[in-house]
Design a protein that fits this description.
Helix content is 32%, strand content 0%. The chain has a domain of 46 residues. The termini are far apart. With 76 residues, it is mainly α. The protein has 1 helix and no strands.
Length: 76
């Protein structure tokens, strides 16, 4: 890291904690950027994902299969 104004603890950071931390100003900026990017990616996923097909409504009971006339209420 070694940026001007970094606290001494910043020199001990390794791996991902070197880039995503709450010690350095750059680390906090990276966390905020990752959060905004994640929210945008999830929003785009739900916006562009395929929509489920809608069920079609049968207006005329005569179009139903034979023996499935539900108008009598007898359960046949």
């Amino acid at each position: 890291m070694g940026e001007e104004g970094d606290p001494p603890e910043a020199k001990n950071l390794k791996g991902l904690s070197k880039h995503f931390n709450s010690v350095t100003r750059r680390g906090r900026a990276n966390v905020a950027l990752f959060t905004y990017t994640s929210v945008a990616a999830i929003g785009l996923y739900f916006y562009f994902k395929p929509k489920s097909p809608k069920a079609t409504k049968v207006d005329d009971p005569k179009k139903l299969a034979p023996g499935t006339d539900s108008s009598c209420g007898c359960g046949n």
